[in-house]
Design a protein that fits this description.
The protein has 2 helices and no strands. The longest helix is centred in the first third of the chain and has 41 residues.
């Protein structure tokens, strides 16, 4: 590989890194915007399917506890 080839490769990789960084920032902003929108909807009692923030079952730790979900495989593991 010649010095010119190495320089071209380095330039292309730097451009790709810049594109990835830009996309990462865009996705981060989009994620933040969606999270804010969801919190806003959760505060609005007129939005169907958006539980309020003061959710009493505190099921955020595993996504199942307290929400009526009963994993039949969990029961099998406990018996063994």
């Amino acid at each position: 590989m010649t010095q010119t080839d190495s320089k071209d490769l380095a330039d292309r990789l730097e451009q790709e890194a810049d594109k990835l960084e830009s996309r990462n920032q865009e996705l981060g902003q989009r994620t933040e915007d969606v999270a804010q929108e969801w919190q806003s909807k959760r505060r609005d009692p007129n939005v169907p399917g958006a539980p309020p923030d003061d959710d009493e079952d505190h099921d955020d730790d595993d996504g199942h506890e307290g929400d009526g979900w009963d994993d039949p495989d969990e029961d099998e593991d406990e018996d063994e």
